[in-house]
């Protein structure tokens, strides 16, 4: 989630002047309208945008039911990646070759990277979500779980409406307010929207060139480095110090080479480039080196499993072979993962919310306990670790 542009932010009154979340829904909408008027929007625009706004209980149910992210990497990636999706991706690359050439020249984003997002977010535009975007954003901002993330997006959508690029009654998208073929939030559209087809509008729902160019511009602004890799499958030697694995540990490629890491195919990147060793299902499963561009993925989505799968799929679309799955140790599921998080919390670790999802904080806590107990410190929780704790 990005902040408002300076020009718009300057018009915004201090957040403390208005209710940030909760209370009656109608009262909350009334407060938003008043804030918009105070920020300088005319009454007709404000009334037009908020007319018919309603709370959407389906949005709240979707927000609380993200069970797909509980799946481990191998299962998750096999669920999302099929030969049909690869074939369609390559067909789309050919169909929109001129657009991808513009993106590669202008922003330095490989086509495989955008194709992977396009595939995962909307299946190449075939299903973009049917939630009313305005209502979804207001519903999530009114809900007091993460108002700081969604409240600014309401005013970004209002600005898009003022510019003629948003229909509050009919614009639809994902439950979390993302719009279009590559699912961008209103603020991201304001910051990075590109009219690539030259029709005078930024139409991410109906124009693939607009959506792809806008996605490329956003990745560039998030820090993507042209000409650099993002992810590469590697083999690891026996006896490797596994405590050096994980997204928080970054060593030079030359250091990884000295420790015995080798590229599965081809050669590793330049020796001075920093990289992290990722073992999504422990040292007996797939292994990858994640280069600096991989960090940009987390600006698009916070789920480790999702971004790793998206980065791997980008490689596949550009010709990489299928990863070696290996034979990972059995992991934890559902109630077991929550039990693990509770035990780690009692031991003094900050694992965030007890949600049964193996997120970054839980992985770090697992790795710490593995080191303490003399187990392979690969951050992959197993029933054996759970029993030891």
Quick structural summary:
With 389 residues, the protein is mainly alpha-helical. It has 18 helices and 7 strands.
Number of strands: 7
Q: How would you sum up the major sheet?
A: 5 strands, antiparallel
Order of helical and strand elements: HHHHHHHHEHHEHHEEHEEEHHHHH
- What is the overall pLDDT average? 92
Spatial strand order of the main sheet: 4-6-7-3-5
Shape: globular
InterPro entries: Lysozyme-like_dom_sf, MltB-like, MltB_2, Peptidoglycan-bd-like, PGBD-like_sf, PGBDSf, SLT_2
Domain Transglycosylase SLT: 25-314
Protein name: Lytic murein transglycosylase
Keywords: Signal
Topology of helices and strands:
Blueprint lengths: L5 H4 L15 H14 L4 H8 L6 H7 L9 H8 L2 H13 L1 H10 L4 H12 L8 E2 H10 L4 H16 L9 E2 L12 H7 L15 H14 L9 E5 L15 E2 H6 L3 E2 L10 E5 L9 E3 L1 H9 L3 H14 L17 H12 L13 H14 L9 H6 L1
Helix pairs in contact: 2-3, 5-15, 6-8, 7-12, 8-15, 9-10, 10-11, 11-12, 14-15
Question: How would you describe the overall organization of this protein?
Answer:
It is a single chain. The chain has 18 helices and 7 strands. Helices cover 47% and strands 5% of the residues. Helix 6 packs across helix 8, helix 7 (97-106) packs parallel to helix 12 and helix 8 crosses helix 15 (304-317). The protein is globular and about 70 Å long. The strands form 2 sheets. It has a 5-stranded antiparallel β-sheet. A two-stranded antiparallel ribbon has the order 1-2. It has 4 domains: 1-65 and 134-174, no CATH class; 82-128 and 179-226, no CATH class; 231-317, no CATH class; 335-388, no CATH class. The protein is mainly alpha-helical. 44% of the residues are buried. It has helices at residues 6-9, 25-38, 43-50, 57-63, 73-80, 83-95, 97-106, 111-122, 133-142, 147-162, 186-192, 208-221, 253-258, 292-300, 304-317, 335-346, 360-373, 383-388, and strands at residues 131-132, 172-173, 231-235, 251-252, 262-263, 274-278, 288-290.
